[in-house]
Amino acid sequence: MAEKKGGVSLIWQISIGFIAGIVFGRMASPQVVGYVAPLGSIFMALLNMLIVPLVLSSLVVGVASLGDLKALGRIGVKTVVLYLLTTAAAIAIGLALGNIMQPGAGMDLALAKATEAKAAPSLGQVLTNMFPKNAFAAMVNANMLQIIVFALFFGVALTMAGEKGKPALAFFDSMAEVMYKMTAIVMKFAPYGVFALIAGTVSKYGMAVLLPFAKVIGAVYIGCIIHAVVIYSGLVTAFARKSPMWFFRGIKEASLTAFVTRSSAGTLPVTMECCHNMGVPEKVSSFVLPLGATINMDGTALYQGVCALFIAQAYGIPLNLSAQLGILLTATLGSIGTAGVPGAGLIMLTLVTTQAGLPIEGVAMIAGIDAILDMIRTSLNITGDAAVATVVARTEGADFTEVE
Ligand code: ASP
Fold first, then answer.
1. 345 C-alpha to center of ligand 1: Å?
2. Could you tell me what percent of the chain has a pLDDT over 70?
3. Is 382 helix (H, G, I), strand (E, B) or coil?
4. Is 338 in the pocket of ligand 1 (CB under 6 A)?
5. Which of 13, 132, 197, 400 is the S-S candidate for 138 at Cβ 3.0 to 4.6 Å?
6. Distance 152 CA to ligand 1 centre (A)
7. In 3D, which of 283, 392, 276 has the Cα closest to residue 65?
């Protein structure tokens, strides 16, 4: 990924695209900005095109290379525990900042109508939905959890099949390599895609729209930065025994791609490529990262905490400690159920707010600026997946490589 073209490394090209996009989005008329929009859409489509074959092939190979089921169970438990703990920490940071910064104070909005409670899916339902009735349908619909379940079974069966399974393994091994190459090719297009995506966002949101929400935007951004600097740096230093600089340098292309695409799922190929370059073995990354792109959403969780308090304060509804603990619980579960696509967190916010007895109109208020919040939370979401991947990799004996 650190490949150079004409002497300029890819991350520089992407950064130039990013800054040029901001300038262009500010200066050019919305109509002119609209002309370059297809570049952004094509970039997103290309990334999405990679996901299913990449996840399937690398996970099958990853599981097959584990050798035994015990290792799979061990990695699974470590991953899920770390994902839950980091998510709970993220909401706690969000709630703390919401209490300290009081982003909704002084907005004095009156309630228009009573809210209707929305039902969260039951745990049983969530578990049942993880098992595909049709493996191909799961792939066609890019249902990540179902693809993960199928690939896990397939990888295990492949190992059990012994000699007869070898050709299938060779096929997926080769396919995974090809998919990594394809990711590298698509990333060459990233500077242009990033340029168009960020230009579109900048052109759409002027200061007049953002200013009344400056505090809530500030709280979400500050919270995400604190979470990355404190929690991820801490995890990487303490458990992966690498410096935070090493980690953030290694993951930068993915963090930036997530920021502009606002999609964890779409960024997954880039996250996998970055972790690959950092020396995270495939047996870990092929499982931890697709799972993380689907269920681990620290940024989304943090945003739910800040926004719930923002809405409560804007409508003058007091939220006591037990109500806030309730938010912590619903937001953790909610972030697990959030799809890694743009704007999914906003839908989940309706669930968190209704469960906390807050007005749904508050969510409509957030909707106007959600894309701005989506950028940073998605970036944090995938950075969190990578941090956990490095920790799990180290505990499974990985040696890391130096990254540029
Ligand atoms: N866009 C986020 C993601 O893909 C989800 C969200 O809307 O919070 O990770």
1. 5
2. 94
3. helix
4. yes
5. 132
6. 25
7. 283
Domains in the chain with CATH codes? 7-395 (1.10.3860.10)
Q: What does the block give as tokens for 303? A: 């945003």
Q: Which two tokens stand for residue 270?
A: 């880039």
Residues 110 and 317: their CA atoms lie apart, in Å, by 10
Question: Using CA atoms, how far apart are residues 16 and 11, in angstroms rounded to an integer?
Answer: 9
114: phi > 0 → left, psi -120 to 50 → alpha, else beta; which? beta
Taken as a whole, the chain contains a residue count of 404
Which pTM was predicted?
0.87
CA-based nearest residue to 340, from 384, 390, 290? 290
Residue 294 near ligand 1, beta carbon < 6 Å? no
* Structure-token pair, residue 314: 């804007």
Distance 66 CA to ligand 1 centre (A): 31
Q: Quote the ligand 1 centre to 327 CA distance (angstroms).
A: 18
Pocket test of ligand 1: the residue of 220, 224, 336, 341 to mutate, having most ligand atoms within 8 Å of its CB, is 341
